[in-house]
TrEMBL record:
Organism: Gemmobacter caeni
Domain of life: Bacteria
InterPro entries referenced in this protein's UniProt entry, alphabetically: ArgP, LTTR, LysR_HTH_N, LysR_subst-bd, WH-like_DNA-bd_sf, WH_DNA-bd_sf
Molecular-function annotations in GO: DNA binding; DNA-binding transcription factor activity
Source organism phylogeny: Bacteria, Pseudomonadati, Pseudomonadota, Alphaproteobacteria, Rhodobacterales
Pfam family, one: HTH_1
UniProt name for this protein: LysR family transcriptional regulator (Chromosome initiation inhibitor)
UniProt family annotation: Belongs to the LysR transcriptional regulatory family.
């Protein structure tokens, strides 16, 4: 039998990246965390944490963390007299979190959410490695050991403020103008701006860009005239209606299909969240 307080310490060190941060999360001393991880390593007979900055679980350690997460989640679904909330780790893209996911999370009781924010094109990788129990992703699957539920389409538009367009694109979004006009990029994984340029202006254009790892920051930057960017229509629509934002080229939206993928073994325990996500998606996303 595995000692679950020791597994909890292992998971905390991996996810917080340090023994002292794990100790703060668990409410024990760093020395106690170290002893628990060492006891588990002695029990398994294998290194479970690579000590460093940050501390990272080995492959064996990740398998144990995945087992611990699944057991805690399944126990939380049992009709126990004094249930304790389980922590559920999921991967969500920033734009979904900013526009429609929060009401779904709030509708699920008895769960504490540990949300990993990553691009929808790569969030499936977190599920593949067992780092999360579920992910909102642009990939429909299949993924071994996982189920997939379609959610709907998140629509993006290329937009900027009227002042920005007058200053940087007085003749419209021509290729030379777009090569000079400052844009906004969420991260190195964000390809939406490049994809829009390729589809509407021509072959891919290298453009100067601000890096803003915030969905709301993207909207604020566009409103302030900082740059142009691909904005979720859910966020941009009120500003378009009031003339504070304009599409660079009308009717050139990009549609991103979203899916909810989750580990099949924990599907019954995840059912309330799956239902809440589907309901929230029906209200906010574009459905086929």
């Amino acid at each position: 039998m595995l000692d679950y307080p020791n597994l909890a310490a292992l998971a905390a060190v991996h996810r917080r990246g340090a023994f002292d941060l794990a100790a703060a999360q668990l409410g024990i001393t760093p020395s106690a965390v170290s002893q628990r991880v060492k006891a588990l390593e002695d029990r398994i007979g294998s290194l479970l944490i690579r000590r460093g900055q940050p501390c990272i679980a080995t492959e064996t350690g990740l398998r144990l963390i995945r087992h611990f997460d699944e057991v805690m989640l399944l126990e939380a679904a049992l009709p126990l007299p004094d249930p304790q909330p389980a922590t559920l780790r999921i991967a969500v893209n920033a734009d979904s979190l900013a526009t429609w996911v929060i009401p779904a999370l709030a509708a699920v009781e008895g769960i504490l959410f540990d949300i990993v924010i990553d691009d929808q094109d790569v969030s499936q990788d977190w599920l593949r490695t067992g780092e999360v129990a579920g992910a909102i992703t642009s990939h429909p699957g299949p993924l071994q050991g996982c189920d997939t539920l379609p959610l709907g389409i998140l629509r993006y538009i290329a937009a900027a403020s009227p002042g920005y367009i007058a200053r940087h694109l007085p003749e419209g979004p021509t290729r030379p103008a777009m090569a000079r006009a400052p844009g906004m990029t969420f991260s190195d994984k964000d390809r939406l701006q490049s994809l829009w340029l390729r589809q509407n202006i021509g072959s891919e254009i290298a453009f100067p860009t601000h890096r803003i790892a915030s969905s709301q920051g993207f909207v604020d930057g566009a409103l302030a005239g900082l740059g142009w960017g691909m904005l979720p229509l859910l966020q941009a629509a009120p500003h378009l209606a009031k003339g504070r934002l304009r599409e660079l080229i009308p009717d050139t939206s990009l549609d991103t299909p979203l899916h909810w993928q989750f580990a099949r073994r924990t599907a019954p325990a995840l059912a309330p969240l799956s239902r809440a996500l589907q309901q929230a998606a029906r209200q906010a996303l574009i459905t086929a």
